[in-house]
């Protein structure tokens, strides 16, 4: 294990959780985005994480890509909506706000945990550097 692996691993975790936060935020922001019945609704976005091995027995994570939920959505009766069809229906995303809020908390806590790990590693590195100062 290299000296600064803790920083690299936690940094990769921060990047992953930031992208996770971005995806969840987009999902929440578009939860009420209507589409005409013939069009696809907003698709829920998921982040795909992948473990990374740097060859020295240590690793981290990376964003392997994004996956999308069903674009079909659900039909909602909203006759006043300008996108409504002749029967008064619009297509809305099939996204659960409770699930998204839970995902938001998970992503936030993961990000905070990686910040804490970087802070602890930095403190340890600074303590190691100061060992020889008082001799």
TrEMBL record:
Flagellar basal body rod protein N-terminal domain segment(s): 7-34
* Limits of the Flagellar basal-body/hook protein C-terminal domain: 87-131
The organism sits in which domain of life? Bacteria
Q: Which SUPFAM superfamilies match?
A: Phase 1 flagellin
Question: What keywords is this UniProt entry annotated with?
Answer: Cell projection, Cilium, Flagellum
* GO CC annotations, alphabetized: bacterial-type flagellum
What InterPro entries would the database entry show?
Flag_bb_rod_N, Flagellar_basal_body_rod_CS, Flg_bb/hook_C_dom
Q: Does the keyword Lyase apply?
A: no
Keyword Cell wall biogenesis/degradation attributed = no
Q: Name one GO biological process term.
A: bacterial-type flagellum-dependent swarming motility
PANTHER family to which the protein is assigned, alphabetical: FLAGELLAR BASAL-BODY ROD PROTEIN FLGC, FLAGELLAR PROTEIN
| Family designation | Belongs to the flagella basal body rod proteins family.
**Protein known as:** Flagellar basal-body rod protein FlgC
Species name for this entry? Klenkia brasiliensis
């Amino acid at each position: 294990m290299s000296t600064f692996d803790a920083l690299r691993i936690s940094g990769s975790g921060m990047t992953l959780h930031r992208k996770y936060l971005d995806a969840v935020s987009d999902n929440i922001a578009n939860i009420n985005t209507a589409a005409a019945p013939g069009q696809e609704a907003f698709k829920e976005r998921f982040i795909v994480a992948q473990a990374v091995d740097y060859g020295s027995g240590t690793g981290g994570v990376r964003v392997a890509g994004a996956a999308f939920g069903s674009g079909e959505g659900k039909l909602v009766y909203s006759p006043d909506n300008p996108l409504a069809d002749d029967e008064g229906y619009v297509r809305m995303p099939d996204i659960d706000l409770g699930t998204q809020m839970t995902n938001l908390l998970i992503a936030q806590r993961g990000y905070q945990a990686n910040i804490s790990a970087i802070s602890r590693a930095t403190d340890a590195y600074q303590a190691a550097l100061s060992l020889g100062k008082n001799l």
